[in-house]
Amino acid sequence: MQKVYLAGPDVFLPDALEIGRRKKELCARYGFEGLFPFDNEINPSAATERPDNLIYRANERMIRRADLGICNLTPFRGPSADAGTVFELGMMVGLAKRVFGYTNDVDNFLVRTKRHTAVNFDAATNVCRDANAMSVEDFGNADNLMIDNALIEHGGYQIVRYAAAPDRIFQDLTGFEACLRLAAEAVSKSA
Amino acid sequence: MQKVYLAGPDVFLPDALEIGRRKKELCARYGFEGLFPFDNEINPSAATERPDNLIYRANERMIRRADLGICNLTPFRGPSADAGTVFELGMMVGLAKRVFGYTNDVDNFLVRTKRHTAVNFDAATNVCRDANAMSVEDFGNADNLMIDNALIEHGGYQIVRYAAAPDRIFQDLTGFEACLRLAAEAVSKSA
To answer: Do A122 and A129 touch, CB atoms closer than 8 A?
Structure first.
């Protein structure tokens, strides 16, 4: 049975364990074993061991064991996905795992960015810029181009965008299940 | 000569080419060849080729060619580093490259997060939470634990924190040069 690493900011939810349980149940329904980072047992055995370092190492080991990844790339405290999730997406790509991703926010990156900061069009360079004069990508992607294109190049599908209810933005699993369907299809094709 | 991939939101600056030139000059001074993503020539040859996809593929090729990476992890439009940079850091870790990183903001992640969103202490679970009830890490790291610990595990050093002047937050190269010094030391030790 292929193992799917379940990357996402879900681990920060008060009911993270319940979300993890539901995600693993859905994985099983599609023939996968779900690996949820919260399942890592962290037992600092020495006073010198930092809990965050133990969590990092446990997550990295779990990612290496996985065959593929499904990433919750819903915007997190800004226009982009959670930094930890994005790091894990990159690591899975480097390790040649197949990756899928979803976002519970359907907006393009430029629109998302405008929700968080002032953006002005700079006629001299023909791009939009924020208050720090940093250009804002306008390719119609959901996030930074590295994220959207990593999914296309290393998963075969665009990011799944689903318009979740605002109060279910971090709980809704419709986009997650759509990724499972794509992953099951991909696995059956390559079998 | 070892090649260093220069990851960072520097590519979004109006003077990105000049910053890239200065970074590569500093690399040469420490015995490295700097690879700056902006140097990738993007020439869409067919109407069907998307420029963002060509940029992704060129960056991925450049990362694979590199021996190590130095990442500008200064907070970008939120409490965390630029998503594209974080993705590239993850990819380099997956590819077993040695990674170094700096931030021009010395604050801890909890303080950074409080600058962007309301954070309250949740006595029931003994953690700080944002308005979405998502917990905020409080390990004393600069960013999400995956980022700080990836640098320790795969570079050997903590993230370099430098208090740049607020109007030079994306231009100051003091932290970058500190990373070059660490990288040169690391390479000379393993030679």
So the answer is: yes
Cβ–Cβ below 8 Å for B13 and A133:
yes
Q: How far apart are CA B147 and CA B73, in angstroms?
A: 9
Residue pair B144/B137 in contact (Cβ under 8 Å)? The answer is yes
- Write the residue in A14, A147, A153 that is nearest to B125 by C-beta: A14
Q: How far is CA A72 from CA A79, A130, B43, B64, B90, in A?
A: 14, 26, 32, 26, 16
- Per-residue pLDDT tens over the stretch A65-117: 999 999 999 999 999 999 999 999 999 999 999 999 999 999 999 999 999 99
DSSP-derived secondary structure letter, A92: H
Cβ <8 Å between A169 and B134? no
CB proximity B106 to A under 8 Å = no
For tokens 């600056």, the residue is B13
Phi, psi of B41 (to 5 degrees): -85, 120
List, for residues B106-145, the tens digit of each pLDDT value. 999 999 999 999 999 999 989 999 999 999 999 999 999 9
Question: ipTM of the assembly?
Answer: 0.97
Query: Quick check: A137 contacting B, CB < 8 Å?
Result: yes
Interface of A with B in 149-168 (CB under 8 A): 149-150, 152-153
Position B112, amino acid: R
The beta strand positions in B44-131, using DSSP E, are 68-72, 98-103, 120-122, 127-129
C-alpha gyration radius of chain B: 18
Q: Where are the beta strands (DSSP E) in B48-191?
A: 68-72, 98-103, 120-122, 127-129, 135-136, 160-161
Distance from CA of A41 to the nearest CA of B (A): 16
Show the CA angle centred on residue A92, arms to residues A180 and A38, nearest 5°: 70
Contacts of A77 in chain B (CB under 8 A): 78-80, 113, 116-117, 130
Cβ(A9)–Cβ(B80) under 8 Å? no
Spatial separation of the C-alpha atoms in residues B157 and B179, rounded to whole Å: 9
Q: Give A95 to chain B, closest Cα distance, Å.
A: 5
State the nearest Cα–Cα gap between B135 and chain A, in angstroms: 5
Residue ranges with strand state E in A8-97: 32-35, 68-72
